[in-house]
Amino acid sequence: MRRLFPVTDPAPNATDTDCEWPLAELAALYAYPEPLPEAGVLRANMVTTLDGAAFHDGRSQGISGPGDMRVFGVLRALADVVVVGAGTARGERYRPAKAREAFAAARAERGQAPAAAIAVVSASLDLDFTLPLFTEPVVPTLVLTGAEAPAERVAAARKAGAEVVVAGSGRGAEPARLRAELAARGLRRQLAEGGPQLLGRLIAADTVDELCLTVSPFLTAGDASRIAHAPQALTTPARLRPASILAEDGFLFTRYVRDTAA
């Protein structure tokens, strides 16, 4: 098993930079498939403790680590759009994705914007449109909702500069239509960052192509949700196969892709 940071018995004069897994290698390992399907690829990225908790004390930061954040940054740097539920955007204090110099040339070559757009999924649009996510984005923030979303909140979102995307016939966005609406805008490299309710709905609708899951070496107990939660399950569980497994400081960084042969 390859290590994300091969720091066991480092050379006497090795520096932290020498030990880090090069960004270019991580980018190659987590690259979206080519050619990219017209319908796009929806990848999810989550972290879980050994006992199945998706967060601690209300946030994922407490169960994360430096290696996890490095993979997190690479996944964002590869994506066209980051999809996140409103509750997670509020709880994790989301900000706009950053344009990173290390990935600028590759993004330009692929015809991507300097940074991924953030797409917030919300039925109520109960969002603070004065936050940097809406006032300081590198590219306009999207709000994914349904046709019956509150009209005054839709107007507030648009006034704040957000692009409101209707991706459902009711109050909220529907997973399959969410994917299609983003792909139609050229946002085909899709990265879902949760939370558990959004990921649960995406899985229940059988719309997830890949899962990048960090297994964190902590036990927490408590009542934290697992990484996916939905009122209903798939009739037949979706089969994914491991594409890569990395290890660093007790953490496992796994990538699973849909097993098309199953």
Automatic annotation (TrEMBL):
Record key words, sorted: NADP, Oxidoreductase
Domain Bacterial bifunctional deaminase-reductase C-terminal, by residue range, is 42-245
One Pfam family for this entry, by name?
RibD_C
Pathway assigned in UniProt: Cofactor biosynthesis; riboflavin biosynthesis
Protein's UniProt keywords contain 4Fe-4S: no
Name of the protein described by the UniProt record? Pyrimidine reductase family protein
Lineage runs:
Bacteria, Bacillati, Actinomycetota, Actinomycetes, Kitasatosporales
